[in-house]
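Input record (one chain):
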Amino acid sequence: MPVRCQIMDLLDDMCVLDQIVAKNNKFMVWCCDTSGMNTIFRDFKYYYCYLNTNLEGSLNTVTTINGQHESGYTDDNVSSLYIRKGNNINTISSIFCQKFRNLLYIGSVARINTFDGNSLENCENLDNLDLKGTQLNYIPNNLLTRNSKLSQIYLTGSQITTLPRNLFISQNYLKKLYLQENQIEYLPSNIFNPLIELQELSLQNNKLQSIDTKWFTNLVNLRKLYLSENPIAEVPDKSFEFLGNLEILYLSDNRVKLLNSNSFVGLHNLKLLSLHSNEITELPQNTFKPLRNLENLYLDYNKLSIIDAASFGVHKNLVEIYVGSNNINQIDEKFIDNTAVNVMEMQGNICSNEDLMGIENIKVGLQTCFGNYQSTKNQHVDVTRDYQCGQPVKGVGNIVGGKYAKRGNFPWLQS
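The corresponding structure, as predicted from the sequence alone:
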């Protein structure tokens, strides 16, 4: 018999879903009676009921599901399936969607390593496929053919090395696709073409060595793109030219050595660009010029020695730049004049300032810091400490002005 009890966790909208939880080879149905409900959680009615399962021992897959629902509920009321750790199930069986045809959510953190041939065929209303930390290394080409209503797919933390070319052929309404923390080395050129409504794409922490410019041809609604933690060495010309609505781009923790003036063409709505922890040695002329709405730029942990205004053009929306832990010894004064920068992180450079805040302070602070560097660089002193006019200041702090700092041209900066 079902046992009434209190649901301890209310995550997102899960409280309005009927849920089956597979644990210790039994399924626990979690249902919400929404009849006459209002928005106050205490007016919900929750119950569990247990559905016994028979596992096919050789494959550890479910072959039958039997059980009892509370009065007034049927299999059609079940809209969420979650397979927990702690059971022998390693296959997403077609029996789930055959028995529970109204599933909106299928999730698992168990040791799933395969799908059977028609796993999701009967779940035509499926909205969210959430498989995290599984042992999947292969995705069938026709897995999602009947799931055209999917809005979110999470295939993360697995062993996937590639995806079939036509996997997303029916996903015209997909909004979020997360594929991070896999072993993906290759993706077909046009694999994402059907995803015209996609807003978020994560390929972070894989083994991609290059960016295929054809991946993004049809992703006109993409807002967030995560390509960090791959061995990507180059950002080809016009890699993102069709991503006119992209607002956030992460290319950090790669092996990028060189950018050029066409690397970011088309990204006129980008607000945040992260290139930290690469191997970039220089920023060619007009590198960031196409990014006219850029607000935050992360260039820390690279090998830059110069910040040149010609790399940026006029950027009146740029308010924060992070260039810590480089080899910077020259900053073009015009860069400050041509931007709205009020936060500039410089730690780990010859000028070891902390965040410089306020445009006047930034200019004065840089003048002081680099001036001190010039007066001390031949004296074999520790330039990571703070100096004023060549005299060491006790303690460690941040020089952002002071009575020795003067405004005007900076002879030690690039002009």
